[in-house]
Amino acid sequence: MSSLLSCCFPRKRRERRLWRQIEEEADKLDQLPSWDAPDNVLMLQAFEWHVPADQGHWRRLQRALPGFKDIGIDNIWIPPGSKAMSPCGNGYDVYDLYDLGEFDQKGSRATKWGTKEELQSLVAHAQDLGMGIYWDAVLNHKAGADFTERFPAVRVDPQDRNVEISSPEEVEGWVGFNFPGRGDRYSSMKYHSHHFNGIDWDQVRQRKGIYKTQGHDWARDVSSENGNYDYLMFANLDWSSEEVRNDVLNWGLWINAQLPLRGMRLDAVKHYSAGFQKEFIDHVRATMGPDYFIVGEYWKGETKPLLEYLEQMEYKLSLFDAPLVGCFSSISQTRRADLRTIFHDTLVQKKPEHAVTFVTNHDTVSPITPFFKPLAYALILLREHGQPCIFYGDLYGLTSDVKHPMTPSCGGTLPRLTRARKLYAYGLQQDYFDKPNCIGFTRHGNRTHPSGLACIMSNAGPAKKRMYVGRRHAHEHWTDILGWCTAPRTVVIDKYGYGDFVVRAMSVSVWVDGGAEGREGMDMGMGEL
Prior knowledge:
Elements: H1 13-26, E1 43-45, H2 57-70, E2 75-77, E3 83-84, E4 94-96, H3 116-128, E5 132-137, E6 141-142, E7 147-157, E8 160-164, E9 169-176, E10 196-202, E11 207-213, E12 235-237, H4 242-258, E13 263-266, H5 274-288, E14 293-296, H6 303-312, E15 318-320, H7 322-333, H8 347-350, E16 355-358, H9 373-381, E17 387-391, H10 392-396, H11 414-424, E18 429-435, E19 438-443, E20 453-458, E21 463-468, E22 477-480, E23 490-492, E24 498-503, E25 507-513, H12 514-520
Parallel strand pairs: 1-2, 1-17, 2-5, 5-13, 13-14, 14-15, 15-16, 16-17
Antiparallel strand pairs: 3-4, 6-12, 7-8, 7-9, 7-11, 10-11, 10-12, 18-19, 19-20, 20-25, 21-24, 22-23, 22-25
Helix pairs in contact: 2-3, 4-5, 9-11
């Protein structure tokens, strides 16, 4: 069916026959699998890199939860909440997995985000609202050691970590972790040099480099970038150690006992043992159930390594679609780029059931031109494939420039797009990817959300596209929920189920039945932070 729906509007006899077939199928919606599909779900990354280090973010998010719920957000990905190496650390510099802001360690009891009690209150309130929390699990390394230890190591070539560039020598590394504030509470495990296979600093010589611990090796089931991409930063954990594996497996169950989580994001999955990751996922799901959601961060612009990793992992998790973000960035910055190629060689095209789609996040290095962000969000939020994730920094703005107030992306219309996903983006999808600078698609609705929608976008001048929304919508007056199209303000669906939908230059329009828009209350807001 998908190949049929990507054709241009018919002019020849064969094309007319094809469109009649499409219309016949579209008019039998109640016979399609999508007719009884469950409601769309949506994830929010609920932080950005420069959130103020005021230890108030858990409280901030709890105040915002009702607003998030109103705009169609179901699951919240929160930042790493374990104790970092400093009170300002975002958690990717993880010190103690078992300290959620409970113990006086590394200069503070609370983490950058708040205390354990505030975190538990946030998660409990989300649960009361029927919303899920996804934990950001940073398992690859440890930072902020309590003391140094001396041990033999060799330096390796940063460009090829399989090549040794020194003889074995005694180094002094920050690898001693005894967690003085926590002691043996929750776990008696202490970490020493034999629990790590690499460091990046020799305290004796005050020298930076990548050092491989003698008697240890890099994991083989990691990315082959730089020869072997096991080592990433800080003190790199050695997953061949039974003590390390057991402690982290224990933590996986412990964190879910402390907090009623619905899933996890696994940080930096290409940098540590895929074999351990499978063991960890199976271990957690054995207790939490098979629907416990796991998404991995495998940052690579090409799709092939992601597909190879998913196969290696036996498809036990999803991945963020980094190649799609690269497409968004490239097309947004290329004058009159061909929009028809927007999904070419992306994860959502190749393995949609394992793709978490996004536009930006806290790590994004591929800039997306501002005019294109609403187009990109419409493409991930309103189409049938992929599990979309929106970004806190796009919802509220970024705080990196303290001299200027936060400015939301998408002209402040992102909440309208998220609500459109929840209310209208259901059922059969019909693509009109027929012109390089103006593409569109329609959704025909399902049993519980029969209204459907029509989306049209342009990266050049103003444009019009005739699209089919179904004969049952004949004579309805459809309006652009984004409010960017002022002429015409309404599109009347003809007796055959077609409408001539318009979009202004360098923009996107999302058209729905004007009566349905009023009934569904598109103007509900986010609430305050």
